[in-house]
Amino acid sequence: MLHQVRGEKYADPELFTTRLVLRPKIRIAWGVYYPFLAISGLFKLAWRIVFYGLYRFGYVGIPVLFLVKLFADHGWRIGVATIVLVALLLVACWWRWPNAFRRFIGWFYLAQWRRWWVYYRHWHPTCASLKLALTFGGDKYFPTIAKVRRDAFGDLVTVRMVNGQLPEDWSAKAVNLAQTFNAVSCQVQTARHNRIVLHFRSREPLTETVAPFAIPAVSDVEALPVAVRADGQKAVISLLTHVLIAGASGAGKGSVLWAIVSAMAAGIRDGLVKVYAFDPKGGMELDAGRDLFHRFCFGTPEEMANALEELVKEMKQRQASHRGHGRVHEASLVEPTIVVLIDEFGALTSYVTDKKLKERINSAMSLILSQGRAIGVHVVAALQDPRKEILPFRNLFSTRIALRLVEKTEVALILDDDALDRGAACHLIARSLPGKGYMVLDRDPTLVEVRFPFHTDSDIAALASAYAPERPATAFVVNR
Ligand SMILES: Nc1ncnc2c1ncn2[C@@H]1O[C@H](COP(=O)(O)OP(=O)(O)OP(=O)(O)O)[C@@H](O)[C@H]1O
């Protein structure tokens, strides 16, 4: 029976020497056996030279072959002149286009060097000690390093797993792997065909505090620039889906809320976006920007329930007037987009002890979340504690943002079941990096690592005074 074992069979160097002195097991004339051994050895050598020299290490083998031919055909003067010319050309490229040079030449060669010097040399003992190798039929098989690439933050090592392995097995060893290969962190991302990518970072991206963005002149609620991605580009979210933000205490949920508010500030000023703000923690977080809100509610649970029911009533009126007029809501001065901003969603529901009140809040929230989108009512909710009470609503939020979380089980609860396998180690985000996290966008499986800009109190005050709508918050403002 021929067994298919996925992995690199470990060839003990000692076995290699014994194989050379091996005598044939069957009786065979020496005069036949040794010439056979010599010819087959030569064939193997030639094959290895072609395979390793031109294919595996072609990036070195081919230029070397070219130089050897050049020296042989045209003499050493032409050879040396060519080397100098190429070196000057490379220096000029590096000087003129440093980023492109790094990306296409520098990182490539550095990655190849690190593949052999850093990873391959320590690979087998590391896998054996972390129990990531497979023993079968008396042989040991190791996960194969298929490819190493480099980016601005470290190495991306593509690994073909052995039979029976899952990305989770590697995620569980991420800290050990990072420590072994002298990396700051190791993220495990799933790839196709039983492969995973280990992202060994030599430095963390997004460690700098991000300043507030310039406010877009026209706010497009379908594409609000709210954060910076690891590659330096702006991350954009759409409010046409409901947005859930989760993070431990001090993770920077406030910075996400303010990034969203500031991105739609022009719409607020022009009356095309109305923000209904709920701050069940007593109004501390959102108070600085209260002038931006059409409604600002920070009272008792009963007052919150009343406010939400008022909103449901307004929603029903919209539904009635929209019946028969298509399903896409267009913001106008008469019917602006309504954004329901909730700081600490958990405080709205989980901490309410009165059963009736809890039911009122839950059913109003369910209606808003399930029917609001079609008529321009969108929810942005932050929460600290992703516990069971949140779960019934979770799937109604298509855009989910997770900042630093306390436990790794919360990652699946907020983002996606396999988010941790795809590298969203929110529980490992340092406390010193508030506003950093991961997000999944509507119908897009890609996880985006981001850092949100930080708005100081004076930034928020300036925002509120420059972009406050004509009519500041009045109606059903509670406890003002
Ligand atoms: N994006 C950010 N960049 C840099 N620092 C930030 C950022 N967001 C928040 N901070 C810092 O972290 C502190 C805590 O932030 P914030 O109050 O927003 O956290 P939180 O998640 O709302 O916490 P809690 O749930 O306890 O209110 C802030 O006072 C600020 O100093």
Automatic annotation (TrEMBL):
List the InterPro entries.
AAA+_ATPase, FtsK/SpoIIIE/SftA, FtsK_dom, P-loop_NTPase
Task: Provide the GO biological process annotations.
Answer: cell division
Q: Does the keyword Transmembrane apply?
A: yes
Q: Which domain of life is it from?
A: Bacteria
Signal peptide interval = none
**Molecular-function GO terms, alphabetical:** ATP binding; DNA binding
The residue ranges of the FtsK domain are 223-412
**Keyword Transmembrane carried by entry:** yes
What are the record keywords, sorted? Answer: ATP-binding, Cell cycle, Cell division, Membrane, Nucleotide-binding, Transmembrane, Transmembrane helix
Q: Name one Pfam family in it.
A: FtsK_SpoIIIE
Q: Which PANTHER family match?
A: DNA TRANSLOCASE FTSK (PTHR22683:SF41), SPORULATION PROTEIN RELATED (PTHR22683)
What is the protein name given in its UniProt record?
Hypothetical cell division FtsK/SpoIIIE protein
